[in-house]
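Rotation project, supervised by the postdoc (A.L.). Task for the rotation student: set up a whole-complex structure prediction and record inputs and outputs verbatim in this book. Inputs entered:
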Amino acid sequence: MSLVITGTMAFDAVETPFGKVDRIIGGSATYAAWAASALYHNIKQVSIVGYDFPEAEFDLLAKRGVSFEGVEIKQDEKSFFWSGRYHEDMNTRDTLITDLNVLASFNPQLPESYLDCEYLMLGNLVPVVQQSVIKQLRKRPKLIIMDTMNFWMETAMDALKETMQMVDLIVLNDAEARQLTGEYSLVRAAQLIRNMGPKYVVIKKGEHGALLFYEDQIFAAPALPLEEVFDPTGAGDSFAGGFIGHIARANDISYETMKTAVIMGSAMASFCVEKFGPERMKEITPADIQTRLKQFKALSAFNEALELI
Ligand code: AMP
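Outputs recorded:
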């Protein structure tokens, strides 16, 4: 059994009210792999990097059960580069630079050992590349989830909508859900998104938690109120990685397991924001995760016995 994760492995420059970093490791697949590999250990990465991406980053993830046979290294080009600046509220940000570099010509050929995966996470990436990964698989995985970003809505909306028709679940943030549908109410936006293909929709609301929509049901997860959010970059990818990592570990795609997966995703996102880049994700232990899950449980546990009449 395996989990395939696609997305970017990149360099980021990030500015937050707490500081500025010029060139740190980032990328949607990097964050997702760190989060998922805390829970599940047969992960197969699909990505592309240039000559400048450090070998040591692969080695660290390889120790956690992530394999890189499906990662192409282009010796004559640079890795994907993204730069962003967060606003004072840390929930919103402006993208300053998106340099596609190697990503501009990415056309992955999945290795034979990837073709029978049970779980597939399409991290934030060119929508036609996301589609190409699905099409190459020998059989349909038990669950396909996708992430995306405003950048692809602005540059590749038609292809993005086609990818959406091919997946079971989409994860996106509140601003992206509103941009995709033109609808302010997230409940209505989720309904419209479900009409576009995915049976399940997860809408992340930064420090206000996340919502899972399925048929006429809604599950709400809080976000852990943190004293200090250092760098929110990668929180969405860590959420998605934690979500699919939990599902793959449980090997169960029931709605009940998905609810726990939303909490697991929220826990991983809460670790991610505690330091710049994926640094915090590298440190966390199973005991840290267990403690954080208990904090999440305590956050909204209450006594139900309320008799008003
Ligand atoms: P998140 O904060 O979860 O939205 O993810 C931020 C990460 O996504 C950064 O590490 C970036 O390198 C990566 N990223 C930014 N823009 C894109 C894009 N258009 N496509 C794929 N990955 C991106």
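Student's summary: The longest strand covers residues 66-74.
Supervisor addendum: The mean pLDDT is 96.
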